[in-house]
Amino acid sequence: MNQTNNSNSLHAEIAAPNALQRFRESHFWHSFKRDKVASISFTIFIIMAILSFAAPLIAPFDPYDQMQIDIMDSELPPIWEEESDERFMLGTDAQGRDLLSTILYGTRISLTIGICAVLLQAFLGIIVGLSAGYFGGKIDSFLMRLADVQLSFSTLMVAIIVLAVFQAAFGTELYQQLALFMLIMVIGIAEWPQYARTIRASVLAERKKEYVDAARVIGFRSPRIMFKHILPNTLSPILVISTVQIANAIISEAALSFLGLGMPVSQPSLGSLISSGFEYIFSGSWWITVIPGIVLIVLVLVVNLLGDWMRDVLNPKLYKG
């Protein structure tokens, strides 16, 4: 009898596909393999992310180390231009820093701000959206009016006011030390209504379904129903919004850095690199601004293309693949 049971359980384990097999057989993976734009975009994004986060290991120089920077090497052109230096493949900036190394470190900062800001947006938006959609009534009205007020102000306007006031109140030196944290907080808090409104719409449709009524009858409390039963069924729009919002957060950070309210020159992001080199673009040192600008455009483009593909795939009404 025991041998029979063991044999049956063994056959069941062999027959049951694991998570990887289910993923490889899913519509999501099938459509990803067929869509060349999505595959290429994802590959480029992964390469850029790996190179940027591995910058301390692969960058030729450390742009944060003053001992490796020589002002006499400033504004050297890329190696395909005359008067270049073979040590600096993409040339140097106005401070004499290797542009390739600075771009790798700057991309890491831009991605960190984008990803962390989106995580904060999602955290706030999910809590607000779930609460508004599940409880309804006055709670829903209050939270949605709060979201409407937030949406009436653009992200850049809120960020400019908050960051400028912070610099005026606490000084530029303290701001430069907290710039990364401040940018994540400001961009994250300014964009949470995008998640809240989308999650609320999904929750309004889900809360009327039988599995929610069954969970209430069993005696589950509201937080458990909201986070363990309803939330998993609203993940599709969350993934789509998150992909697009990463690109938006990176653009917002770049715009703020260009206005002088982003990362300091000592810890440059892609936006601050573009800003610091803009005044030299007409003097002949075009590479200081143009090359980081191209990297920023490619990064935002591939993230947006991935977001568009995910929106089409996760919405059966739009997908035609």
From TrEMBL:
Q: Which GO terms describe its biological process?
A: transmembrane transport
Q: According to its record, how does it sit in the membrane?
A: Multi-pass membrane protein
The record, for CDD domains, names: TM_PBP2
Q: Domain ABC transmembrane type-1: where? A: 107-307
| Alphabetized InterPro entries for the sequence | BP-dependent_transpt_permease, MetI-like, MetI-like_sf, OppC_N
The record's SUPFAM superfamilies line, in alphabetical order, gives:
MetI-like
Keyword Cell membrane in the entry? The reply is yes
The record's Gene3D superfamilies line, in alphabetical order, gives: MetI-like
User: Where's it found, cell-wise?
Assistant: Cell membrane
User: GO cellular component terms?
Assistant: plasma membrane
Tell me where the transmembrane regions lie: 37-59, 109-137, 149-168, 174-192, 238-265, 285-307
- Alphabetically list the UniProt keywords: Cell membrane, Membrane, Transmembrane, Transmembrane helix, Transport
Task: Indicate whether Transmembrane helix appears among the record's keywords.
Answer: yes
Family affiliation = Belongs to the binding-protein-dependent transport system permease family.
Q: What PANTHER family does the record tag this protein with?
A: ABC TRANSPORTER PERMEASE PROTEIN, OLIGOPEPTIDE TRANSPORT SYSTEM PERMEASE PROTEIN APPC
Q: Identify this protein by name.
A: ABC transporter permease
**Native source organism of the sequence:** Alkalimarinus sediminis
